[in-house]
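Subgroup meeting minutes
Present: P.N., E.W., G.H.
Scribe: E.W.

1. P.N. recapped why we're keeping a running log of single-chain structure predictions: easier to compare across weeks, and new members can see raw inputs and outputs side by side.
2. G.H. added today's entry (257 aa).
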Amino acid sequence: MKDLVIAGKKFNSRFFLGTGKFASKQQLAAALAASGTELVTTALTRVDLAVPEQDDILGAIDRSKIEIMLNTSGARNAEEAVRIAKLGKAAGYQWIKLEIHPDAHYLLPDPVETLKAAEEMVKMGLVVLPYINADPVIARRLEDCGTAAVMPLGAPIGSNQGLRTQAMLEIIIEQSNIPVVVDAGIGLPSHAAAAIELGADAVLINTAVAAADDPALMAEAFRLAIRSAELGVKAGPPAAISGASATSPQNTFDIFR
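Output recorded in log:
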């Protein structure tokens, strides 16, 4: 399994963590420590970029160890997403998770507006990671326009349903020349491990950790599952076969004849 490098930055952890829905700054800090993550996302509306040292979400993040990726959550079209990105860039933030979902019920990303916004943000010199449907065509178009990675959904945001889009994820992973980060819908550590075993480069988790009874313990569980899957892939597992394959020579019992 190749090293995870996005926009020239190497990540040792394939576990990215969202910062929404945590009950307190203390819970977030504990989950961050347990996760081992090196990249987090946070909505621009949840932080005061002018005073990063204040007692807000940024105060829980050690920026010497963790990259902050602002997301455009809440944007309903490309124009709104680009406006958010410009505010973030002005405050010194270069990494943007591009999210545009006009449907408030299912929060599914708008592929047309996402591509339009991505093209503009790439021209601005930002590191753009777009949240998309598990659509190989839009994934390829975004790669061609210069995004640093693509982030296809496993299932609707916050649904905890797992990899409902597995067939399409497999195609995206097969065709992509940039990192693929499975984002949204992952509810259990086993779901995250399955994404890595499919060949995804990383996973982004939020609700499954933040809404758990013990967020720090759940973050640790995800860390271990993702690392275990990564090691399993690196080990080179034997291919699945349709029949059986004996673990002992078939003539073992000849000695009794």
